[in-house]
Automatic annotation (TrEMBL):
Top-level taxonomic group: Bacteria
Residue span, GAF domain: 117-255
Native organism taxonomy: Bacteria, Pseudomonadati, Bacteroidota, Bacteroidia, Bacteroidales
Species, as recorded: Williamwhitmania taraxaci
Protein's recorded name: GAF domain-containing protein
Transmembrane portions of the chain: 12-30, 36-55
UniProtKB keywords: Membrane, Transmembrane, Transmembrane helix
Pfam families reported in the protein's UniProt record: GAF_2
Signal peptide as annotated in the record: none
Length: 256
């Protein structure tokens, strides 16, 4: 392509030079004859116009070529940016996967064999979570397959004369979480909804997160976590990614 454009440019230049040469030779040969002078002038003008046309055509081709090159560069740049974006997404996904795996190792035991009951297993999980987050109180309900009822198994820092009521799917907030199989984060807690008791006195939490434990598409447990701080979106997302692991541990322990 570059060779062709050079030929076009050389062709236009040659025509222009030939036109001038023809005009000068004609004037010299005729000795100033008016007719031949007019003829040579006409030839000169035709050659000049042809040369200008060729130069203009060459310039247009150059512009088209540059435009095509720019389009190609923009396309390659777009492809490069897309590849960079995909690599960034891959890195982010890898970091999130590592974060989830580390969290699972911290809160779930390597084996259920060391726990003789679901109560001990669920209390171990709640205690492990409390070490990682500012959890002031925690409850863990598991599902009785024969009655389809969720009953309290594990407790963390829970103090009350009355135990929480059992529930079924769709009953109350915890029952709705069991039905929807989605984490629920509540930051606007009504007064008296939950009271946290310690040696320093009592208080109401600022945030409650209810997490389902899911095994093979079925909710087998529900965990309630109360905190004096507001759970961040990242924390909610992290718990959303471990519902299956929680459910498998609960389901596997029931078969031991």
């Amino acid at each position: 392509m570059e060779s062709a454009t050079r030929k076009n440019k050389s062709y236009a230049t040659a025509i222009f030079i030939v036109g001038i040469a023809v005009a000068l030779i004609s004037v010299y040969a005729i000795g100033g004859n008016q007719a031949w002078l007019s003829y040579s002038s006409l030839v000169f003008m035709l050659c000049l116009l042809t040369g200008l046309y060729s130069v203009t055509a060459y310039q247009q081709k150059e512009n088209i070529s540059l435009s095509a090159q720019n389009d190609g560069l923009e396309k390659r740049l777009s492809q490069f940016q897309s590849q960079v974006g995909k690599k960034k997404e891959t890195i982010v996904d890898a970091k999130e996967t590592i974060q989830v795996e580390e969290f699972i190792r911290k809160i779930l035991p390597e084996s259920n064999q060391q726990f003789g009951s679901q109560e001990k297993l669920t209390e171990y999980i709640l205690t492990s979570i409390a070490k990682e987050f500012s959890i002031a109180q925690g409850l863990f309900f598991t599902k009785d397959a024969s009655t389809e009822t969720f009953t309290l198994q594990g407790r963390y820092a829970y103090f009350s004369e009355d135990l929480p009521h059992n529930f079924k799917e769709g009953e109350g907030l915890s029952g709705q979480v069991a039905k929807d199989k989605m984490v629920l984060n509540i930051s606007d807690i009504p007064d008296g909804y939950i009271t946290i008791v310690s040696g320093l006195g009592t208080g109401n939490p600022n945030s409650v997160m209810i997490v389902p434990a899911i095994s093979q598409g079925t909710t087998v447990g529900v965990m309630e976590l109360a905190s004096f701080h507001t759970f961040t979106p990242n924390e909610v997302d992290l718990f959303s990614k471990i519902t299956a692991q929680l459910g498998e541990r609960i389901a596997n322990h029931s078969t031991i």
